[in-house]
Design a protein that fits this description.
The chain is mostly helical. The protein contains eight helices and no strands. The protein has one domain: Up-down Bundle (Receptor-associated Protein).
């Protein structure tokens, strides 16, 4: 039922969805992974649209809708507004803490050199590699924890199963 409430509130109120997405990004280990996934999705989608000849304003509009995160969507929308006013894409993104300086500087270089799609693909490749590394390290961390949890659970079940026998033996013995 908590999932239903979350889904309902997030769909009905954009502010709630924004706050929930902000909280998702602040979860200690998972938030960093989620942030990288959102950045990879943003850069890959924008690179594909831009290299396919879709105008940059339309590309940013579509990319904002597919970002999967309201915080990043807001930053992309602000970048689109700034682009309409004659600024570069990188300028408004540099004001948003969601976009690391490396991403902003690579986008800026891509804009200046005319190779924006190539730079966006490089950023996405970098984050894809980071995501893969993080998932592998999380998997290697979770495995021993699950084995320990399983051992404790089985130990409790065994003790709970044999405890009545011990009390019966005490009454028989004496």
């Amino acid at each position: 039922s908590l999932g239903f409430v979350y889904y309902y509130l997030a769909k009905k109120y954009d502010r709630v969805a924004y706050l929930i997405d902000m909280l998702k990004l602040k979860i200690p280990v998972i938030g960093k992974l989620y942030h990288r996934i959102c950045l990879s999705r943003f850069t890959r989608t924008l690179a594909i649209l831009f290299s396919s000849g879709v105008p940059i304003l339309d590309s940013l509009d579509m990319t904002a809708k597919t970002s999967g995160n309201k915080v990043i969507e807001k930053a992309i929308t602000e970048a689109k507004s700034s682009l309409k006013e004659g600024e570069t894409i990188a300028e408004p993104l540099s004001n948003c803490p969601m976009f690391p300086p490396m991403v902003v500087s690579m986008i800026s270089v891509g804009e200046k050199t005319g190779a924006l799609d190539q730079m966006l693909n490089k950023i996405s490749d970098f984050y894809d590699h980071e995501i893969e590394t993080t998932v592998d390290s999380l998997a290697s961390l979770i495995e021993p924890l699950l084995l320990g949890f399983l051992g404790v659970t089985i130990g409790i079940a065994v003790v709970a199963m044999y405890l009545p026998y011990f009390s019966v033996f005490e009454h028989i013995g004496g």
